[in-house]
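User: For my dataset I need records formatted as: sequence, then structure tokens, nothing else. Please produce one.
Assistant:
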Amino acid sequence: VSTHPFTAFMLHVIRSKFGLDTPNLVILTDYGSHSMWAHTEIDKYVVADEAMIPELTVRGVKWENVEPLGI
């Protein structure tokens, strides 16, 4: 579980380069996303609001991998 953009990036790197097969989850602790949050190798994202989902999908995250559950 990651609550920081750098950790989310490192999960992405470890999975893509070293084949980490452990499920991972990123909880965005901001009310907006930026490029350091969005990575294709993350299993699930928890965001504050449904309005944040398109912000991640334009950066390559699949819609079904984002849950608007709040923070």
